[in-house]
Design a protein that fits this description.
Strands 2, 4, 5, 6, 7, 10, 11 and 12 form an eight-stranded mixed β-sheet that branches. This protein has a five-stranded antiparallel β-sheet with strand order 3-1-8-9-13. Helices cover 18% and strands 28% of the residues. It is of the alpha+beta class. It contains seven helices and 13 strands. The radius of gyration is 18 Å and the shape is globular.
Length: 256
């Protein structure tokens, strides 16, 4: 499961990544604070879709509300499970909600993700910042949905888009980091740039989608560095940004 991503000073990089990108609506979160963005806040975040022959930057909420979540109680209980979509469900489980919306695909621009590692004998898990080697900016594949039965703003009738981030079985490196909890041994679906763009192709067949979903990013293409904290609100004692490496004495090394 991926609940924490980074989007640090990357807004200007999106335009160069996607040719002739159209901005649909303004982004109003503090980009200087984009060094950490958490899924369970269900806040809005920039995503990229391909519509009518053009790339569009939308501003969607992280975490999908499906039509069967038709009461506040159901939304509160179930939406937290809709921030990630298991890649195995998208094609293989035809009863899955993810299978039903598999044709509404998006990309989630990031500079990295965060994950915790459990170490035997250590009281606290060690937080890590993970990003792609030689790629300061990249995109994670996702799915999006408009719930027409539940306007985001009942007064105006606005129907706001919502998205989920796709995860898959972890590669050997990420298995060592995301190694505990109900969703242990998972990671986001990291892709080469050409497959990221292919994910948005409107003519993508299920067979082609299956090849993308089956891709496993090699461990040596990921950079994983321990950081001081992920969700703490207080500034780091050393004054460094949240995604800066932090040295833990006697920290067992990861094996790549």
């Amino acid at each position: 499961m991926c609940l924490d991503i980074a989007f640090y000073s990357a807004l200007e990089l999106i335009d160069g990544y996607f040719p002739d990108l159209t901005h649909d609506g303004e982004i109003n979160f503090d980009l200087d604070m984009g060094v950490h963005f958490m899924a369970l806040g269900h806040s809005r975040y920039p995503v990229i879709v391909f519509e009518k022959g053009q790339y569009h930057r939308k501003y969607f909420e992280w975490g999908i509300i499906a039509e069967y979540m038709d009461t506040p109680e159901k939304i509160k209980a179930m939406r937290k499970s809709m921030v990630n979509a298991r890649s195995e469900k998208i094609l293989d489980d035809k009863r899955s909600f993810w299978h039903r919306i598999r044709k509404t695909r998006c990309l989630i621009p990031v500079t990295g993700i965060y994950e915790h590692r459990e170490i035997p004998g250590w009281k606290n898990k060690v937080p890590y910042h993970i990003h792609l080697k030689d790629r300061p900016f990249f995109c994670l594949p996702g799915l999006y949905h408009y719930n027409t039965k539940m306007p985001s703003d009942p007064e105006t009738g606005e129907i706001r888009g919502m998205f989920t981030l796709i995860t898959r079985a972890a590669n050997p490196l990420m298995r060592q980091i995301h190694n505990s909890g109900d969703n242990a041994f998972r990671m986001p679906l990291f892709l080469p740039k050409e497959r990221e763009l292919e994910w948005l192709s409107p003519d993508l067949s299920d067979e082609e989608m299956g090849r993308i979903l089956a891709f496993e990013m090699p461990s040596d293409q990921l950079i994983a560095e321990p950081v001081f904290s992920i969700r703490a609100r207080k500034p780091r004692p050393d004054g460094q940004p949240k995604n800066a490496p932090f040295v833990y004495p006697d920290l067992p090394q990861l094996v790549v």
